[in-house]
Amino acid sequence: MPELPEVETVKNGLAPFMDGATIKRIVLNRPNLRFPFPNGFQELLEGQQIGQLRRRAKYLIVPLMSGTNMLAHLGMSGSFKINAELIEGTARKFVPLAHQKHDHVILEVVHPTKGRVDIIYNDPRRFGYMDLFDDEQESPHFANMGPEPLGNQFNAQHLAERFLNKKTPVKSALLDQRNVAGLGNIYVCEALFLSKIDPRCPVGTLVRADGKPKKALELLAPTIVQVLNEAIAAGGSTLKDFKHADGELGYFQHRFQAYGREGEPCLTPNCKANIARTVQSGRSTFYCPNCQT
């Protein structure tokens, strides 16, 4: 499933073609994705000007000047494609793309400088979904969601406050969206490896009695930010179905130091152990049994 860096990459790819554009028409090639489209989905979006795209956790948000927001979740295999009149500064006659199998939603928009643009949502497995909401604070999609790991509210002290006196394994706690929004299995494995923290470690042991973060937690918070930023710079990780909005693939998977490397040598200098795998909350965890203690 695409995680925060992948959704951020998609947002960055779509923004130049959608920010400031007006939605002329929406084509729905089926009545539902993972869930049915909300009532009035087309009517509420058509004719609206788009504001500045943003991301919240693993959600792409398309704000409209009316105050309504369109939300998109990519699920397991969702992706967006772009077909535009103006690409890389070269004008061309707009030719609609032939519909491909699993092209479920098409947003026909007109951009102030790029002209006609089709934003095409393709999803073979249909685990993705779209919805509408007005107020983020009242939307059930964001209820009790923690701070963004790339935002100013995320730091070691925040984690310490959430982890104090808890026995939850740190891997599971970081995947809990109530503690921090948008983290997923891949990048948590990588951050814990780089921080040398055992993923099975109870989170309460990372917090001092006075509620302040211990040294390991002080290292973990900025390491999470580092891993996410490096993944965004690399365009995310291509695992199975993920593609950018331009059809290109991500490359961060070539930098994995723990995730998916079961049985391979640990990359830490002078460490002779192999990467091990265990299952936590139904998800694979990859770690070094020697370095992460």
What does this structure look like?
The protein is an alpha+beta fold and 293 residues long. It folds into 2 domains: 4-142, MutM-like, N-terminal (N-terminal domain of MutM-like DNA repair proteins, Alpha-Beta Barrel); 156-287, Helicase, Ruva Protein, domain 3, CATH 1.10.8.50. 22% of the residues lie in helices and 21% in strands. The protein contains 6 helices and 12 strands. The protein has helices at 4-18, 41-45, 156-163, 170-175, 185-195, 215-233; strands spanning 22-28, 54-56, 59-63, 69-73, 79-84, 86-87, 90-91, 103-111, 115-122, 129-133, 276-280, 283-287. A 4-stranded antiparallel sheet has the order 1-8-9-5, covered by helices on one side. Helix 3 packs across helix 6. The model is unreliable at 238-244 and 247-252 (pLDDT under 50).
What percent of the residues sit in helical stretches (DSSP H or I)? 10-25%
CATH architecture of the largest domain: Alpha-Beta Barrel
Counted up, domains total 2
Sheet having the most strands: 4 strands, antiparallel
- The oligomeric state is single chain
Q: Given the structure, what is the number of helices? A: 6
Runs in which pLDDT lies below 50 for 5 or more consecutive residues are 238-244, 247-252
The main sheet orders its strands as: 1-8-9-5
User: Mind telling me the CATH superfamily name of the largest domain?
Assistant: MutM-like, N-terminal
Summarize the structure.
By secondary structure, this protein is α+β, with helices and mostly antiparallel strands.
Helices and strands, with pairings:
Elements: H1 4-18, E1 22-28, H2 41-45, E2 54-56, E3 59-63, E4 69-73, E5 79-84, E6 86-87, E7 90-91, E8 103-111, E9 115-122, E10 129-133, H3 156-163, H4 170-175, H5 185-195, H6 215-233, E11 276-280, E12 283-287
Antiparallel strand pairs: 1-8, 2-3, 3-4, 4-10, 5-9, 6-7, 8-9, 11-12
Helix pairs in contact: 1-6, 3-6, 5-6
